[in-house]
Automatic annotation (TrEMBL), chain A:
One Pfam family this sequence matches: EFP_N
Name of the protein in its database record: Elongation factor P
Keyword set, alphabetical order: Cytoplasm, Elongation factor, Hydroxylation, Protein biosynthesis
Localization, UniProt: Cytoplasm
Domain of life: Bacteria
Broad class of the protein's primary localization: cytoplasm
Domain Elongation factor P C-terminal: 132-187
UniProt record similarity statement: Belongs to the elongation factor P family.
From TrEMBL, chain B:
Protein name as it appears in the record: EF-P lysine aminoacylase EpmA
Gene: epmA
Gene3D superfamilies the record matches: Bira Bifunctional Protein, Domain 2 (3.30.930.10)
The keyword ATP-binding belongs to this UniProt entry's keyword annotation: yes
Keyword ATP-binding belongs to the record: yes
Pfam family, one: tRNA-synt_2
Domain Aminoacyl-transfer RNA synthetases class-II family profile residues, every copy: 21-327
Top-level lineage group: Bacteria
Entry keyword set: ATP-binding, Ligase, Nucleotide-binding
Amino acid sequence: MASYSTSEFKGGLKVMLDGDPCNIVENDYVKPGKGQAFNRVKLRNLMTGRVWERTFKSGESLEGADVLDLDMEYLYNDGEMWHFMKTDGSFEQYAVDKKAVGDNAKWLKEQVVYTVTLWNDNAISVAPPNFIDLEVVETDPGLKGDTAQGGSKPATLSTGAVVRVPLFINQGEVLRVDTRKGEYVSRA
Amino acid sequence: MTPDSWRPGATLDTLRRRAVLLQAIRDFFAARDVLEVETPVLGHAGSTELHLDALSLDARTPAGRERLWLQTSPEYHMKRLLAVGSGPIFQLARVFRDGESGRRHNLEFTMLEWYRPGWTLAALIEEVAALVGEVTGRSQVPLRKRPYRELFVEHLGVDPLIDSAESLAALRQLAARHGGAQSADWSRDDCCDLLMSLVIEPELGQGGPEAVIDYPASQASLARRQVDAQGAEVAARFELYLDGVELANGFDELTDAAEQRARFDEDNARRRQLGLDPVAPDEALLAALAHGMPPACGVALGADRLIMLALGLDSLEESLAFDTLRC
């Protein structure tokens, strides 16, 4: 991989730091008038999701990370791994482990397209679309006519996610959910 | 290019107020009988300073094809005017520093630089604060002046002027803790620069201008060196801060040609160590100093930063018609 110097650090650039691939979030240039220039850099460690703050002398460089974000359709879970397939017509499949899927396991629905991040051709994370339509498999019976009043109740969705929904929602309905906040948006 | 990137970064209202502030600066000096001068942006000599990258270009001049440098400050030319007896002079100059861009930096910027022959550094510090007060409406009486070492002791618990292995280890550790820096092999000055920028600076000049004095001798640049009250060698140099922003840097100017040549050589030796190209010393400046420059104090102030603070703006690009991204 190419290496990148501090002046090339832009949001979204993928670099290696302490052995882990990282995504550059922010790069701030500071310099005392007569002194050494520095770059204060915020990087998200793509393995752990943690944000690191590091200061480099301007002109230092980091090796690029071979990281790719690819669209892949979720196929099935075999009890241990989650299997995805590229949407480019190659039918190429990737098995993703629990560490990479993490909390997003609760948003995985067959035939939906997810963003799978590959590092050196291994899947390291899975991101769901911002909005996804899921069926309610369990909730208290809906309250008729209660469409204007506030109030909410928990509902379990087909993927296992639990979200707060309005009281009028019934089992079997399909809902649009915001996966970033884990919130009900509307009936689908 | 985005569809809107032809537009200025500053609003028209900002540009109108900027013009008023530049006029206020000129009025300030006119009232004090300081002569406005203009010197060339291009010069035959670059800056030897370790942490300044000057831009250069090839030009056809009366002498033929030559490499000329874009100034990083108007200092050398202005000192040559002092050497022929100009008396007090000021300039609003365009200067260029390669690689410098950020919220508080732009590759090309306006520097307000002035010289006071026969003045003490203390008198010049007061004048800088008076100018800042006049332009921003923010003043602090009496002006706070803090020695560099005292700030380090207060904020970080380490005295950077004690030249010991322990204090160097402590500075490296602090740079790692506060900056997340891999600072195990950093020099004392690099650690100090990082800690000054990240930890101390943001606290300086809150509520009104504040000066830092008695810099480490290793950071003297073109300032005279002297001994402080505790017997350590320090630079006769100050910086002025407002709202955590470094605004100005001033010296009791070095006027000794031999010492000046030695500093140029020192810079170039360090440049070579770091794998940087050495820069030929400015022989015209050295000749002027040999001829005799009167003792003088001088200061350079970032005019765009001053305007940014005066107008309550958050970044330099909002105070400039077109920053380097838009030019």
